[in-house]
Design brief:
2 helices; rod-shaped; mainly alpha
């Protein structure tokens, strides 16, 4: 799974814009509704707490996705390093073998 940071950023920006718009709408709707002040404050507090929880979950998801991308990149990086190390060791063994053959031929001559 390849995570495109730009797409993730756009997704989180869109969701954040939605939350801000929804919260603004709720606040304005509640403030202008004909109800007692205490009821209005209670409803407003309840709605804001609900949006706070949604925002905290979004932040956790973003952090989790980022950690997943980092772990995936680290795993692939480790694989590339190990493959390069194996190829370098094989090349070194081939060079040692060639040097051995050259020295053997020199000694024979």
């Amino acid at each position: 799974m390849i995570i495109n940071k730009e797409a993730m950023s756009n997704k989180s920006n869109s969701f954040m814009s939605f939350l801000v718009g929804a919260a603004t709408g709720v606040v304005l709707g509640v403030l202008f509704a004909p109800d007692k002040g205490s009821n209005t404050r209670d409803r407003l507090s309840y709605k804001l707490d609900k949006y706070k929880v949604m925002l905290e979950e979004l932040i956790e998801d973003i952090i989790s996705d980022e950690e997943s991308a980092v772990n995936m990149a680290k795993s692939k990086g480790d694989k590339v390093v190990n493959e390069a190390k194996e190829k370098a060791e094989q090349l070194l063994a081939d060079v040692d073998s060639l040097i051995g053959h050259i020295k053997k031929e020199e000694n024979e001559n």
